[in-house]
Amino acid sequence: MPVPEGGADDLVVQPPHHVTWLVHLDRAMWVGGVRGLMLQALHPLAMRGVWQNSDFRRDPLGRLRRTADFVARVTFGSPQEAEEVGRRVRDIHRSLRIRDPDTGRTHRVDDPELLLWVHCAEVTSYLDAARRGGLRLTDRQADRYLREQRRSAEYVGLHAEDVPGSLAEMRAYFAAVRPALRVTPEAAAAVRFLLWPRLPEDLRFLGPAKAAYLPFGALCYYSLPAWARRMYGALPEVPESVVTAALHAFRLTMNSLPEHVHRRAFMPGTRAMLAATGERLGAAGYDVSHGLRGLRDPARWPARVSRSSGRS
Known about the structure:
One of its GO terms (molecular function) is oxidoreductase activity. Helix content is about 60%, strand content about 0%. The chain is mostly helical. The chain has one domain.
């Protein structure tokens, strides 16, 4: 299989030369994912949409794994796979409604303002967790990551031009939306669930280690912006330096796990998709002998791609 003219763009949504590849293969993403759910919960309508239309209360980690599947498919999947999962998500959202008990009004789950909030809370959490955990990205690279994530936003039904594509634009977005945020009873309960969740059936083998989850859940909570932690007030404050050190330790430990071990945390369909991506890229001339994570190194790309692509 020849390497396409644009690199691997015809094979995978976000090719190895994208900054997204660095961020989304970093194991700090697990902290970012839970942090993102905690942050998203501060929007009353967004939280009520989750509360009223999902099994979040019974299986909060299941929701995290489904989110991980979506992110993986719109990152490492083929354009066709990403279009398929995006269409499925849009179809589900289109049929769902949110009842606001404060006003008595009914809202659509696919309201662009709600979709934008969920997207921004999610991608900033991934980026912040990875950078604070030790992933070395310049501000220019961080801007590029946010621009690349506009494509992910399109899969859920947003227009790229309406999505913040730089750190400055993202800061402006959060400053504008913060007055609408508050801790509803649902949001407070969501944080409690995320600090001590039920394990999904296929992860019950981790049961003896569940006590270790509380420090992980606390790490996710403490990685929230200070203003969000002040709103929740769920745990006593600790020095920021302690949180940063803990993120570094978590990231170092998780990044040391072999890829086949780490993938057990994903749903079977996600694992199969990632394996297929490795096969496609290997056939196209990428050196996948060290797995997808090995492709963070441009030396493992085909020579033509290495010469023409970069992450600056």
